[in-house]
What does this fold into?
Amino acid sequence: MAASLLLVIALAPIANAIVMPDGYTGKLPTLGFNSWNAYHCNIDATKFLSAAQALVDTGLRDAGYSYVNIDDCWSIRDGRDANNHIIPDTARFPDGIKGLADQIHAMNLKIGIYSTAGTYTCAGYPASLGFEDIDAADFAAWGIDYLKYDNCNVPSDWKDQYIFCNPDYAQTDSNGTCNTDLDPNLAPPGYDWSTSNSAIRFNRMRDALAKQNRDILYSLCIWGTAGVFDWGNETAVSWRMSDDIAPTWSKVTHILNLNSFRLNSVDFWSHNDADMLEVGNGDLTPEETRSHFAFWAAMKSPLLIGTDITVLSQQNIDLLKNERLLAFSQDDVYGAPAKPYKWGTNPDWTYNSTYPAEFWVGASKAGTLILMLNPSDSVQMKEVVWTEIPGLTELGYQVTDVWTGTDLGCIQFGCVTNVFSHDTAAILVGEAC
It folds into this structure.
């Protein structure tokens, strides 16, 4: 019989989470800006300074968005200098990365940079595998606060022996199940992914960063491969849990579906990264954009704005500043994310990227967050019953509308509401009444 692995098996949280020396940085999901979704390789210092100023001018910095992160393509393409240092592209960054970092820091913001655990970055620029100590020292000397570390162009001698059961990269059946009939290279049950070449590659940069006299937040762009959910929080504070996002509803629900089965690895210092936000991008409707942001915040993914903030609509700025969702994301008492308590259209624990789990709940200092997703193409009535929800045992509760902040008063037994296509109703359940 073929060995098999079910995606729906929840992963146990790991106790040995990495903790930054200051005891706080990285404890909560990162908030900020990243250049890739907006600009890809068309970057320069002016765009980052404009993004930083926009964070200040819109009030997003004061709402908690503090990182301005450079993605790929910041160096020259032709290699390293005679001493093996990556060379910043001074045509794009006339003052170098250090000069830009100084200007970003002067705005009371932090700055991030990008590299890859391979021979070249995803866009074909010099990467850091084999040069971890040199690059980490340079990042620290330049004043870098955050490193996104990607997973492209891995040499053959660094490839993993096995494949991890992630439907983005492994052959699965319709319910997200992997087996060796579908993919003979599937890892055997119980395989220790912390011993894999992928874990070793990413740990090399972790160790190089730890040698520096500067706190640099470490984020793995590992795409949900190599069993990272088992070992990621011993290496970094966040790790990508899927392939790249795109500004489409189908991609948003696909990532939501994948992550709904992986949330036991999320807590303080330990965050599944559902990828950068697409708020303001593509053809997402206002309803789809609201759902996208609500679930990324509720799942406690890093929230990295991926659009040109200078032209972002006030509606989307207000969405990104939603006080109740940001408070849930940044709760310093409750580290666990919201999770599905009922699937809705499908039976519980169904793997379906078109109709992912629809009813979610999470605890916070402000109360119990409840999300009701409508993935269908028409208006649906959604109902929550208090006694179905973990932790709610009384008949009546004070309820607040998460989107408007409106006090809905004391609601008995549960809540019924009509939800537009691809939208999400969100309430905060407070004290019993």
User: Anything to note?
Assistant: Residues 264 and 338 are 10 Å apart (CA to CA). The chain has eleven helices and 20 strands. The radius of gyration is 22 Å. The longest helix spans residues 197-210.
